[in-house]
């Protein structure tokens, strides 16, 4: 075993790479603080790293350089909070891709974008765009123009310096996307995650299983290791995480003919005494388009509250952290709704009504997720080309519109929610929405 997992950290040219707050010269200190015997010091260091090298999901030129050291810390059994470090690696790899999670990561699309940039003959414009992103709001638009025209080479030199320090030649396009570089480096270290699936700590096993969900390029190896975990895992939250990760990888194939996994999940579903494991199995089967009444009913229990099911399930979640909820048991309902959004309301009208009722007690991003899924189901996945006439909507769609107005009118100022409405060509201002649905109050206010 290597004596010091952070050996060599001081030899990295951190002053040549950046994070959210400038030069990344503080990274060695914060990486070392992850080994502190004091828990508050460790948690403070991890909080600082989240905010610097993966600030609100953004990755920087320093981010991929920190990943190998995080993996080496995880490899050491005496490193505290290794489970949290594994979750941090998942965050580094995927960022805040709320549109993708838990549906999967389309890294192929990101790589395609980079390849297109590499083939672009207009190198100058690419560098200008990259420089603009690099500088951000640190200087005025006028100074940016000077930099673009070569009249202030200090900024351009700083930018190119950061590219070289991150190990990528500036004539390559990969520098344009630190997100892709960070994702690739995390993927390169997945053998550590495979070993962690057999760790003594249930938290480490759970976090390792979660990390594997986002790397379809390693699908074959990951599926093998996760299937083995299904045979041996006894901790419900770890088993449930492995089940959903396995289904997420399989679903990214867009090939739902893998009966081996379906049969294994059905076997677990029928035998498990854990509400969480039973629900995760049903949830994963729906993800794999096994839309029988049994699976749909099980997933919908989180929305209907049938037989105190959510309460019993949340009791299990209080014992261990379930990564797919990001620490929020309330997210169970939105997780269920998102997975049901591929269904058509014309075939499942009762489902639409049940999900509509869930908007009354939802808040924040859960509300956004549920409303988005609700609209997708109610309109059978077909977005109107322009704002529809309320009278042209069918009875079920009109009922959804009224439900959104009745329960969400005080939340129209929530930006993410407004974006959901606009994406469906629906009014995003409360007063306009009332007019749209021909609400009596809208016309009374105009008298």
From TrEMBL:
InterPro entries, A to Z: ARM-like, ARM-type_fold
Give the top-rank taxon of the lineage listed in the UniProt record for this protein.
Answer: Eukaryota
**Could you identify this protein by its name?**
Uncharacterized protein
What are the top taxonomic ranks of the organism?
Eukaryota, Fungi, Dikarya, Ascomycota, Pezizomycotina
């Amino acid at each position: 075993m290597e004596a010091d997992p952070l050996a060599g950290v001081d030899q990295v040219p951190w002053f040549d790479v950046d994070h959210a707050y400038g030069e990344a010269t503080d990274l060695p200190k914060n990486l070392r603080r992850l080994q502190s015997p004091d828990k508050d010091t460790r948690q403070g260091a991890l909080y600082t790293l989240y905010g610097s090298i993966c600030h609100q999901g953004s990755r920087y030129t320093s981010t991929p350089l920190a990943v190998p050291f995080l993996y080496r810390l995880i490899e050491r059994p005496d490193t505290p909070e290794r489970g949290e470090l594994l979750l941090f690696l998942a965050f580094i790899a995927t960022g805040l891709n709320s549109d993708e999670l838990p549906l999967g990561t389309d890294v192929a699309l990101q790589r395609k974008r980079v390849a297109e940039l590499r083939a672009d003959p207009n190198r100058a414009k690419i560098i200008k765009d990259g420089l603009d992103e690099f500088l951000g709001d640190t200087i005025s638009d006028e100074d940016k123009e000077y930099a673009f025209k070569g009249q202030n080479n200090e900024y351009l030199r700083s930018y190119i310096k950061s590219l070289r320090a991150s190990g990528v030649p500036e004539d390559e396009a990969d520098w344009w996307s630190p997100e892709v570089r960070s994702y690739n480096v995390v993927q390169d270290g997945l053998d550590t995650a495979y070993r962690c699936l057999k760790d003594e700590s249930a938290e480490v096993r759970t976090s390792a299983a979660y990390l594997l969900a986002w790397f379809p390029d390693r699908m074959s190896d990951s599926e093998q290791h996760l299937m083995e975990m299904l045979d041996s895992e006894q901790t419900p939250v770890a088993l449930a995480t492995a089940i959903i990760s396995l289904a997420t990888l399989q679903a990214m194939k867009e090939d739902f003919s893998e009966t081996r996994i379906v049969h294994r999940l059905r076997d677990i579903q029928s035998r498990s005494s854990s509400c969480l494991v039973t629900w995760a199995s049903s949830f994963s089967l729906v993800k794999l388009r096994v839309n029988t009444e049994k699976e749909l009913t099980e997933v919908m229990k989180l929305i209907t509250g049938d037989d105190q099911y959510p309460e019993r399930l949340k009791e299990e979640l209080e014992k261990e952290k379930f990564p797919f909820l990001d620490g929020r048991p309330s997210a169970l309902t939105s997780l269920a709704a998102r997975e049901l959004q591929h269904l058509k309301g014309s075939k499942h009208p009762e489902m639409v009504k049940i999900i509509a009722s869930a908007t009354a007690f939802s808040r924040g991003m859960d509300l956004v997720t549920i409303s988005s899924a609700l609209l997708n189901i109610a309109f059978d996945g077909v977005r109107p080309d322009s704002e529809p006439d309320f009278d042209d909507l069918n009875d079920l769609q009109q009922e959804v519109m009224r439900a959104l107005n009745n329960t969400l009118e005080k939340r129209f100022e929530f930006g993410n929610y407004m974006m959901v409405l606009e994406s469906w060509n629906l009014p995003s201002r409360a007063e306009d929405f009332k007019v749209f649905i021909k609400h009596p109050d809208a016309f009374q206010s105009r008298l």
